[in-house]
Amino acid sequence: MDKQTWTAVDAYFAQALMPADPVLDAALAASRDAALPAINVAPNQGKLLHLMARMMAARNILEIGTLAAYSTLWLARALPAGGRLVTLEADPAHAVVARANIARAGLESVIDLREGKALDILPGLTGPFDFVFIDADKTNNVHYFEWALKLSRPGAVIIVDNVVRDGKVLDPEAEEKVQGVRRLAERLTGDSRVSATALQTVGGKGWDGFILAVVN
Ligand code: SAM
Fold first, then answer.
1. Residue 208 C-alpha from the chain's centroid
2. At the top level of its lineage, which domain of life is listed (predicted)?
3. What is the pLDDT of residues 95-138, one digit of tens each?
């Protein structure tokens, strides 16, 4: 199947299963208007994160890499009353857009956006989290995964985004951000602390995928 068909199938199911959503659409528009990079999850993947968080009745969610809070909003909407989501963002310009999007969604009391480098903030967080979404600088994936494990309860789910990258993950000489994925895959090999798999995805944003792990 070619990319044009993947994109068309994505659009078909997005229209069928994800009706127009003024809050999420406005979040993406604000991100575009502020010239932020279009590296948010695709709508069907945002919905997938939302459904996974709901399936496991997550009450405490951690996200590493906020951008404009698009995935954050999908995840926060999965929370029951009293739930919380902590999201970490290093770029102040991204955080400004994210805060406005969170406020427009009426989720300021649910979402705790912390600004700064994730590795500086993570040691000060209090868990346990039920669900962790790792989607920041890929070079630090192993460190983020270790923190996710420290801060999670048994049975928690950890998702790491962008692990396929058009197949570049196979290349031992690939750029550093791909090496970050490869180091994580090697770290997880035989790691009895988690049970993990990788799921490849195709769609409007190309061929990519995520690692999905459950904490033992
Ligand atoms: N999860 C977002 C979504 O799908 O809507 C997309 C996140 S984007 C792929 C990655 C984000 O991580 C960027 O906003 C970037 O500024 C942020 N980031 C990069 N390095 C970081 C770090 N060391 N600590 C925290 N955030 C970081």
1. 13
2. Bacteria
3. 999 999 999 999 999 999 999 999 999 999 999 999 999 999 99
Q: With residue 143 as reference, give the H or E element that holds it.
A: helix 141-150
Predicted ipTM? Answer: 0.99
- Output the residue whose Cα is nearest ligand 1's atom 16: 91
9-63: per-residue pLDDT in tens? 989 998 999 989 999 999 999 999 999 999 999 999 999 999 999 999 999 999 9
Q: Is the pLDDT of residue 1 over 80?
A: no
Amino acid at 58: A
Catalogue the E-assigned strands of 22-138.
60-64, 84-89, 111-115, 129-134
Question: Residue 13: which CATH number?
Answer: 3.40.50.150
Q: How far apart are CA 186 and CA 181, in angstroms?
A: 9
CA of 105 to the centre of ligand 1 (A): 20
Helix (H) or strand (E) holding 137: none
**At residue 15, what is the residue type?**
Q
Q: Which domain holds residue 114?
A: 3-215
CA distances to 1, 6, 35, 127 from 28, rounded to whole Å, are 28, 21, 11, 30
Number of domains comprising the chain: 1
Ligand 1 centroid to 206 CA: how many Å? 19
Given a contact cutoff of 8 angstroms between Cβ atoms, the answer to whether 207 and 167 are in contact is: yes
